[in-house]
Amino acid sequence: MEAATIAATYPVSPFFGSPHSRPYVRGFRCFGLSIPLSRLFAASMKYRDHRRQVATRSSGERITAQPSSELRRKNTGGIGGSEDEKLRSLRALFSRPGIGIDAYIIPSQDAHQSEFIAECFMRRTYLTGFDGSAGTAVVTKDKAALWTDGRYFLQAEKQLGRDWILMRSGNIGVPTTTEWLNEVLPSGCKIGVDPFLFSYDTAEEMKAAVSKNNHELVFVYDCNLVDEIWRESRPKPPFKPIRVHDIKYAGVDVSSKLSTLRSELIEASCTATVISMLDEVAWLLNLRGSDVPHSPVFYSYLVVSYTSATLFVDANKVTEEVLVHLSKAGVQLRPYEAILSEIESLSDQGAKLLLDPSTVNAAIVNLFNSASNRHLHRSENKVKGNIGRGTHLESTTQKDAPVQVNGHNTLFKISPISLSKALKNEAEIKGMRNAHLRDAAALAEFWAWLEDAVHKNMNLTEAEVAQKLLEFRRKQFGFIDTSFETISGYGANGAIIHYRSNPDSCSIVGDKNLFLLDSGGQYVDGTTDITRTVHFGDPTARQKECFTRVLQGHIALDQAIFPERTPGFVLDVLARSSLWKIGLDYRHGTGHGVGAALNVHEGPQSISFRYGNMIALQMGMIVSNEPGYYEDHSFGIRIENLLHVKEEKVPNNFGGIRYLGFERLTFVPIQSKLVDCSLLSFAETKWYNEYHSEVWEKVSPLVEGAAQEWLWKNTRPLPLPQQ
Amino acid sequence: MEAATIAATYPVSPFFGSPHSRPYVRGFRCFGLSIPLSRLFAASMKYRDHRRQVATRSSGERITAQPSSELRRKNTGGIGGSEDEKLRSLRALFSRPGIGIDAYIIPSQDAHQSEFIAECFMRRTYLTGFDGSAGTAVVTKDKAALWTDGRYFLQAEKQLGRDWILMRSGNIGVPTTTEWLNEVLPSGCKIGVDPFLFSYDTAEEMKAAVSKNNHELVFVYDCNLVDEIWRESRPKPPFKPIRVHDIKYAGVDVSSKLSTLRSELIEASCTATVISMLDEVAWLLNLRGSDVPHSPVFYSYLVVSYTSATLFVDANKVTEEVLVHLSKAGVQLRPYEAILSEIESLSDQGAKLLLDPSTVNAAIVNLFNSASNRHLHRSENKVKGNIGRGTHLESTTQKDAPVQVNGHNTLFKISPISLSKALKNEAEIKGMRNAHLRDAAALAEFWAWLEDAVHKNMNLTEAEVAQKLLEFRRKQFGFIDTSFETISGYGANGAIIHYRSNPDSCSIVGDKNLFLLDSGGQYVDGTTDITRTVHFGDPTARQKECFTRVLQGHIALDQAIFPERTPGFVLDVLARSSLWKIGLDYRHGTGHGVGAALNVHEGPQSISFRYGNMIALQMGMIVSNEPGYYEDHSFGIRIENLLHVKEEKVPNNFGGIRYLGFERLTFVPIQSKLVDCSLLSFAETKWYNEYHSEVWEKVSPLVEGAAQEWLWKNTRPLPLPQQ
């Protein structure tokens, strides 16, 4: 049922690019197809796959993969009074001296465009009671509305109080947030936002959109209005210590990375850059943290100039070891909150900043631009001004201090870290290989256990199965966390691409239908992400045909060889054409980038039917290969391995360029019971058999007993076709 | 040798889109990859494939496929004095009263962005002596330079006089035409162009480019300066009668087509449109002409408003039958030259024009815009102005009469005819099918003859073979013309993608190497375009491997099934991936649109590795399927069929949309001798055998004797693989 709702939020065909898809921005917005601006709010700028999960864990605890029904209950019935009370308190702030706004927009984001965020930043969830991963709340003096997409219509209906209007994004006739504001507010209103929660690009688009009805977008720098009403009940910010990411896993030391970045700054004629993406900071400094679930990152900003590097972070998280590590690379420390005063001081020094407008928040960019501008004025007038967080409210359309957009003080450019981080070095690749083998061992143990449990009719729920998988992974060396919330979907639930099993009400995993399991681990040396679909009983011919066609797409992409400079989207059709032959398709991309012991979703590359991302697949990149097929109300199929882009030894080199291909990182059997051998070609059957022989060879030494027995049974070759 | 030169004009990888490739412009420019603006001049906006040929036939004669060495000799040694004399005369005109320019740009185009043009419009050829299909001449008061691309470097060196500088477009350090003008002219010069010979878009780009050195682009409306010096020796304009394209082939009558177009005008809130593409005029009016080689079109403009339609054409070409045909549809006639006064009168009437800026020339667009503007001023000032061809010289940057670009009087939009024409109706498809069968019969006869001739060592040249092919085609019902100049390339010549055999010096077709033959016919009911590559002796293992991989790409595209709304470029990889597997590729697109008894190259669709064209493949479109492989100095391979995009009966319809596939139109054997059966999969072998059984079934009744015997031998099945 939910899957049908999802379908309704898409345009009829998935083959229309998003009107807002921008080439060369890192990653892209999934679900950003039909309702541009509200979607910009609903989804972060970062890559979103079929696993946009709410981060539910208090970040101070050990993070587990256990779902979050508790949290939902806490949120809806917790401290803070009725929702009416929250809205009343929020509106009271509109007219507070120095604020003076007519509406306030509350997005889902934190200040770093993170995919998973700490609980203390879940302001939209706190205010509305709705805890789906995607949603934007807009509150005017007399109205309150929440936008979310088809995945969450039912959930939002249940969770929203009576004062809230549910805006079903993507349904015909439903306005975007800014269209709605243009409709419901009289011309010339002031619309407030927390400028930390919007990328500069997004804020600019909003500004233009609301200007159509002469509204002004007002950046409320002083405070976040939701935090003001949240007060004591607001969860504490994350405080777990940061750790050093060992050089044997990182491969390149911080000084070298900083040196490369500085060369790029010099080449771009910039004097400094502000890095706000948490995985970029972690990668550049060879540090890892535990501030949010699933991603080993920590809240911070990093400012790098020719001569200095300053990490803005809560000092409590910095251990002695980290301090030594940073000082060796000449990285100084300042408090997280000091970022704005640093921005001002950079402007005072006449810095020219390289900024990625799709990731750096509007607070930083606008402060720098207006401070630089004041600095210019000051130089002319010999008058000294003053500015800082907590001291002012900034109109985004002030006429006396025009913002120096992309002028001589700011170069807007995709972050140079994005590509460097995507091109894994040998140590990172080695770590990824090793982590994947241990992950495969955990999965062999898990699948052997689950098969047995199902056959013994133990009536385990999807959530219990996910929990058990976590236990198997935990036993492996270097395991830290799940890399996203496990998707454990039996039968019809498997057809819900973004399914999240509710422990209280989810299905029993049985032997009457397909079971789709998409999961991953964060290890000290690497990040995994794997999907397998199995049947513990007798699959139907229909299920076998669909599974086999998904497998054929998986094999075609896995086996692709392509010239350097080929963007990922060119290969997407290889994964779909076997399904297309019988009129089937799937409504998600085929591949996303994966970090090395970092975020499970990263850019800039992707393999997708959306054609906006022109970034080429390059040696050292990691991408997922995950075609699927989802039959509404019935079953879901996905087969996912991670691949490493490598040079391919080919007998020719037409054009004098390299030809690239993939090395498989994932080594877990693909259930033979689901393969309709009559559909496979000789070459496909050979691929299947060779893969399984490799799985046995690599993983069997890491397991024993029942798991090894299971692995043996599940790596037997298919008969070669006698056509 | 030439092929190496071609290679040098490309960027290292073909997987970089042209910086000037624009989505949604009809067709695209081949070879427009590396040197934007000079290429804009060198290549027309229309689709250019690997057969950009100079139209060499005097358009009054019966057009044959005989190459044009005579014409070249005439051009280089003909009337008109030495080349110095031509340049001297041209420069003398620069300072003529009312002109006053410092440089003049002479492109290859006619006023209609035609692929093949009448001899009287070959001004660049006349002026420079260089008769390659692509080239732009620029003459300043003391310099003269010609830009052409790698295909023509050697030819241009031979043909250009000593006063000409050869600009090797695409070579490193070679400036574009406008960059060069910015370099060699002192700031603030006037650069003249004939505004009829540039699309509005191109003229705008040039204007912006030369403004960098403060130059002004001056539209010389009065006359074409080359025509002024050409005088008596200039060939007469084409005068052959226009004929009615029978409704049984056209399928839809003119009134209905006009009615559809008027609905589109109303929908776009426009009152009229000017159609200048010759194939669009011919298609809309169900007329055909013989003004240029290879394309059955006639020089004309068509203006359609809500209530009227006026054809601007030389009255001498209009027969009584055509007159009756046109008047039935309410189409009036005016002289070709009257188009400008019509544009003025449209402006007087306050018309709002729908114009395609990529095809309509700058003369028309700018005249309309400035006339509309004067009209506005007039309305305000009650003062009457005057304008017309032959009366003024227009500065494109005049400040007192700013051009109303895309203002309330002009809507710039892709021509609505472009897509309507591409979506063939049942009658057109039927005509295409029938024409292809007769063409296949001619080819069976031809190949039977050629095989015999080669085995008898008759020492036929590539040009003689092409001539003989024309004779076989001529015997078929309804044959009118070749649809482009035949590419007949033996051995190393086959590796030159745009090869044109010179009768005086071309190769003998023998049995020691591959022979590539790309040709097509214009028939009364359809247009064909087919490439086959054969070997009359013993192919090498290398040739067989390359041929087989090209064949695998051909089969993969032929067999593709894809959802509605899929742009052609998505399928391009299917045709390349078999070559990529061994590090090979080809540097041209895989498919172009084809008209029904019209231009052999038409838009808006294409199947190409250039990703700019987002036009979806749609039911009723015709596309070519022509992967290839070219080994420099050695051999060339291409296998080309035409395909008709049709709905595919598939067992599912995921997304509630149609799934599309292809119907083959071309039925000529693909030489089995060149197939390495060990590389083909079972499914590919089956495709090959089924295709050949279909060829035999459809074509054998149309031939007899040796041709039928040849057809029988060449349609025998390959052994199915015993893998």
TrEMBL record, chains A, B:
Q: Name one GO molecular function term.
A: metalloaminopeptidase activity
Q: Which residues form the Creatinase N-terminal domain?
A: 90-213
InterPro entries named among the record's database cross-references: Creatin/AminoP/Spt16_N, Creatinase/aminopeptidase-like, Creatinase_N, Pept_M24, Pept_M24B, Peptidase_M24_C, X-Pro_aminopeptidase_P
Q: Does the keyword Repeat apply?
A: no
> What are the residue boundaries of the Peptidase M24 domain, all occurrences included?
431-647
A Pfam entry, by short name: Peptidase_M24
The Peptidase M24 C-terminal domain covers which part of the protein?
659-718
Which cofactors does this gene product need? Mn(2+)
User: Is-annotated flag, keyword Ubl conjugation?
Assistant: no
Q: Where is this region: Disordered?
A: 52-83
Could you name the domain of life of the organism this protein comes from?
Eukaryota
* Keywords associated with the record: Aminopeptidase, Hydrolase, Manganese, Metal-binding, Protease
One GO term of the cellular component aspect? cytoplasm
Family as reported in the entry's similarity comment: Belongs to the peptidase M24B family.
**Name this protein carries in UniProt:** Xaa-Pro aminopeptidase
